[in-house]
Task: inverse folding
């Protein structure tokens, strides 16, 4: 509870980060419309679809997908490339913003006199972006390899079960279901640990100024030495997820009312981003406290 309270205190001292996150979300939305909206409109204009023909397009695509791809391969390639560019651009914007936000939270946690400013935010973003980019790239490659191994293992297990099954007895069905469920649960656990490790590795990278390998190593040792860090992450993640679901449920009744629906959407976006800042604040503050990081100001105690 003390860490969560410290997260709220740290977030309330840096409420400008909520606005920064909203601006980042708006930029991503505009980029989505630019990178995907324009190619899709160009494709629609090229294909010459109108409302009368649009209803016949999907059945034709389902019946003869190869004919569609061979005829409109250029459009498919354009849309695919546009989607890749959007993912790259969006990832860069999110990482750049996150680097600045974590740097601001670090400085604010270490110095009670620290005040948010755009110059300090961009300075932290420029300093942390390259490290975070390398970290996320390395962790993503590792996760994709691990996911590939799990998929191959699941495929091999499924093939072996089908090969050795001669009947449909209760024991065989139970054994096959148990093995597949075990692989799925194991994969979900690995994903949760991966998510936790990459979040703490980002905090270590910004707080300590370390590279990708050192950040992952320090984050792993931190989680091993401080098991309560697992509990803190789970509580914060679950709490933010539940609050987001509640906000979505509150918005649903007003979705059909034009003006009220828009206002509710904006208010919910503000609260969602505020809760995200609180989560990062609590994790950053507790990492600094539990690792006994040297403080910049002796007048502030985390």
Result:
């Amino acid at each position: 509870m003390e860490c969560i309270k410290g997260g709220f205190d740290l977030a309330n001292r840096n409420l400008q980060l909520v606005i920064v996150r909203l601006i980042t979300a708006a930029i991503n939305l505009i980029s989505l419309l630019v990178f995907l909206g324009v190619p899709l409109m160009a494709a629609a204009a090229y294909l010459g679809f109108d409302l009368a023909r649009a209803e016949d397009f999907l059945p034709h695509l389902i019946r003869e997908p190869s004919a569609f791809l061979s005829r409109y391969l250029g459009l498919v390639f354009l849309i695919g490339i546009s989607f890749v560019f959007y993912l790259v651009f969006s990832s860069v914007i999110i990482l750049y913003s996150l680097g600045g936000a974590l740097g601001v939270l670090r400085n604010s946690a270490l110095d009670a006199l620290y005040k948010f400013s755009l110059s300090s935010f961009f300075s932290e973003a420029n300093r942390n972006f390259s490290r975070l980019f390398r970290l996320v790239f390395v962790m993503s490659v590792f996760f994709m390899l691990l996911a590939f191994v799990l998929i191959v293992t699941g495929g091999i297990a499924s093939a072996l079960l089908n090969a050795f099954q001669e009947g449909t007895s209760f024991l065989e069905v139970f054994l096959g279901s148990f093995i597949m469920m075990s692989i799925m649960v194991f994969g979900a656990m690995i994903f949760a640990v991966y998510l936790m490790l990459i979040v703490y590795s980002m905090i270590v990278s910004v707080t300590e100024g370390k590279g990708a390998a050192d950040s992952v190593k320090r984050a792993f040792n931190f989680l091993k030495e401080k098991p309560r860090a697992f509990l803190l992450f789970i509580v914060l993640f679950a709490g933010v997820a539940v609050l987001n679901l509640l906000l979505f449920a509150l918005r649903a009744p007003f979705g059909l009312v034009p003006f009220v629906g828009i206002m509710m959407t904006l208010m919910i976006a503000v609260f969602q981003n505020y809760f995200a800042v609180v989560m990062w604040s609590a994790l950053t503050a507790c990492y600094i406290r539990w690792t006994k990081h040297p403080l910049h100001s002796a007048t502030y105690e985390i």
